[in-house]
Amino acid sequence: MTEWQHVGELTRQVAAELRVQRAALDWTQQDLAQRVGIPHDALARIEACGSSIDLDLLTRFAAVFALDPPDFLAAAIRNSEQRLRDGNLYLPDGSLDPVQVSVAPPSKEHLAMLRATREERKRQRGE
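That's the Transcriptional regulator, y4mF family sequence above. Prediction below.
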């Protein structure tokens, strides 16, 4: 995999994890966009893999999900690898299937883990 393909893959992994994290909280795109402080259409482009994010924005996303940026990235990669194991995300030509990447639902186990982690962090902070 070339370096530019790897960067594209990471962008897709982050976009998918944003959708997963948002779903875990039952937030709309508008809800998340307001919490992060970006326009709704910007978030829609990010989640659709039409726009990448910089480290500052990644940090803001992680913060609203009560995660450290490295934990958020690790979850994005781990979740993507799980989807690869569970189903074929690739078309016969080797490109990612946009349907699979865009709509792969989070597993119930992953959502439960996210909620438990969030509650534990809130408890640790005394919230």
